[in-house]
Write a structure and sequence with these properties.
The chain has 125 residues and is an alpha+beta fold. It has one domain. Helices cover 26% and strands 25% of the residues. The chain is built from 3 helices and 6 strands, in the order αββββαββα. The strands form 2 sheets. Strands 3-4-5-6 form a 4-stranded mixed β-sheet. Strand 4 (72-80), helix 2 (88-104) and strand 5 (108-113) form a beta-alpha-beta unit. Residues 32-122 form the GerMN domain. It holds the Pfam family Germane. It comes from Paeniglutamicibacter kerguelensis. This is GerMN domain-containing protein.
Length: 125
């Protein structure tokens, strides 16, 4: 969503901001797993006329595990990251990280895809 002032949420690349959305009630034992699965299983690239975009929708990612150490959550995913380019890279990274850290209640997140940092994977594209 284009929001150069960052009024809707944290500012990320290309003038975008992160905006939290809600799903229906979900039963879970692991908040991080539930939140990541909700994001990863959402195949809609856009959400109605809201202007909200799901940059992760084109990727074929699956939740494998997560762990919290101190103020950081590490999430292990498997699959393939698909990016539309320069503006999608930070969208993908921050959607995954923000979802994980909010669900875990920590200040930072590390996302691994097939054992590699998401930033390294996307910087090669």
């Amino acid at each position: 969503m284009d929001d150069p002032e960052g009024a809707s949420g944290p500012t990320i690349g290309c003038g975008d901001t992160l905006v939290a959305t809600e799903t229906g009630p979900v039963a879970f034992t692991n908040k991080v797993e539930a939140a990541m699965n909700a994001l990863l299983k959402d195949n809609a690239a856009t959400h109605g006329e809201s202007g909200l975009k799901n940059a992760v929708a084109a990727s074929d990612l699956r939740y494998k595990s997560s762990s919290v150490k101190g103020d950081q959550v590490t999430v292990n995913l498997t699959g393939t990251v698909m990016s539309g380019g320069t503006c999608d890279d930070p969208r993908i990274i921050e959607q995954l990280k923000y979802t994980a850290k909010v669900a875990a209640g920590v200040g930072s997140a590390r996302i691994l895809v097939n054992g590699s940092n998401i930033e390294e994977l996307l910087s090669q594209k």
